[in-house]
């Protein structure tokens, strides 16, 4: 299920990247994704900044679900970062 979600996000990402809409700073996380990070950390009941099991477990699920409601570019950025981080654990 997670891989299907990630695949769908990458497809949406390709569309978002091809969009001619300019972004102010594509490396800065947006407010929506920052809010999701904070809410997801609280919901997971652990610290994703210091605990890999948290980051790649309950937090991952909560955060990716939350950012799905954010603008596509933000969602893709967060999911890419989380996926890369968890693949290296």
Describe this structure in words.
The chain is an all-alpha fold. The chain is 69% helix and 0% strand. It is built from 5 helices and no strands. It has helices spanning 2-18, 31-44, 52-55, 58-67, 72-87. Helix 2 packs antiparallel against helix 4.
Question: Quick summary of this structure?
Answer:
With 89 residues, the protein is an all-alpha fold. It has one domain. The protein contains 5 helices and no strands.
Lay out the secondary structure.
Elements: H1 2-18, H2 31-44, H3 52-55, H4 58-67, H5 72-87
Residue fraction in strands: under 5%
Could you report the average pLDDT, rounded to the nearest whole number? Answer: 80
Overall strand count: 0
Quaternary structure classification: single chain
Helical residues, percent = 55-70%
For the report, how would you describe the main beta sheet? none
Order of helices and strands: HHHHH
Structural class: mainly alpha
How many individual helices? 5
Q: Can you tell me the number of structural domains?
A: 1
Uncertain runs: 4-22
* Terminal CA distance: 20 Å
What's the Cα radius of gyration? 13 Å
Overall 3D form: globular
Subcellular location: Membrane; Secreted
Domain CFEM: 28-87
Membrane topology: Lipid-anchor; GPI-anchor
Signal peptide: 1-18
């Amino acid at each position: 299920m997670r891989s299907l979600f990630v695949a769908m996000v990458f497809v949406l990402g390709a569309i978002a990247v091809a969009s001619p809409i300019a972004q102010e700073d594509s490396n800065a996380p947006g407010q929506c994704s920052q809010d999701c990070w904070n809410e997801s950390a609280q919901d997971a009941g652990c610290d994703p900044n210091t605990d890999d099991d948290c980051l790649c477990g309950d937090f991952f699920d909560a955060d990716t679900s939350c950012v799905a409601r954010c603008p596509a570019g933000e969602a893709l950025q967060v999911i890419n970062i989380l996926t890369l981080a968890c693949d290296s654990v």
